Amino acid sequence: MGQNCEINETSIIKNNNSFSSPSSPYVLFDTKKSFSSRLTHLIRRDPTKNYFKPSQKPKKINKTEMILLDPTDPKYISIKSSFVGRPLSQSKILGIFELCMPTKLEERHEAYKKSLSKKTKKNIKDITHRMFHGTTSNCSPERFIEELIFNKEKDEEIVNEYHVERKFCEKDCGLCGIVQQGNRTKYTKTKCLFKKNRMWFANDPYTSLYYCNGVVLKSVKSMFVVDVIKENPGEILIVNKERATLPRFLILFELSECYRNA
Predict the structure, then answer these.
(1) Residue 212: its pLDDT value, please?
(2) Position 121 in a domain
């Protein structure tokens, strides 16, 4: 889904006490190393080292917060386990971000969820469906992770969390748009002549894969895990209300060489 970006910055946080103190030998990385090796070095820290603890989540969020999950996190493991079947089972997950969307979007989503639950007389969990949503990107998705690697200029600015104020694409980038604003109907490409623009979500990542710039066009792809509020479940859920959706996670991954070169 192509999507404009009306906001230009957000915060990126490394979770699970992953960053080292200024005296740690892991602060700097060899820029000649491959992205994959630097990412592995970034995530797999020595637990005996004295790392900073993340501060508490602010009560009100104005800009989306992106929290890079540790591979041992139950949320990470759960999402990774959904990547089954070829070619996803052979894909390499570069990182999974938990998204803390702006408070106004969270509140609007929660209000709609309660309203539909009351209207249908169903439990909230029965109308909340975790779905996948593939999207296109005009930028390099891996940059979200690369920004979390310390560089020499940042050594004196180490705080409890490592925040990055990041510039985003200004238009036609589904990745940047959804991270900041959530799913927006006005940017969807599934338009109908007599109906509102509608958004599509799949209950398996394989279906959503083909909306991630195609199967072989780009090496690093982005896919969202979204909570979709709908009275009944389905393999495909189609909605035209923005408040019925809320992005929860962002998966950055790349397919194996055999599929990229197919």
Answers:
(1) 84
(2) yes
Task: Check whether 62 has a pLDDT greater than 70.
Answer: yes
CA nearest to 128, candidates 249, 227, 237: 227
Query: Can you give the residue range of the structural domain that contains 180?
Result: 11-260
Task: Look at residue 5 and tell me if it is in a domain.
Answer: no
Helix, strand or coil for residue 73?
coil
Asked whether residue 2 is domain-assigned, the answer is no
**Short-list 117, 92, 128, CA closest to 219:** 92
Q: How far is CA 22 from CA 18, 150, 159, in A?
A: 13, 10, 10
Q: pLDDT band at 163, cuts 50/70/90? A: very low
The CATH number given to whatever domain includes residue 254 is 3.90.228.10
pLDDT per residue as tens digits for the range 187-217: 766 555 446 678 899 999 988 888 887 655 5
Sign, Cα dihedral of 32, 34, 39, 45 = negative
The model's pLDDT over 83-119, given as tens digits with 9 standing for 90+, comes to 877 678 778 899 999 999 999 999 999 999 999 999 9
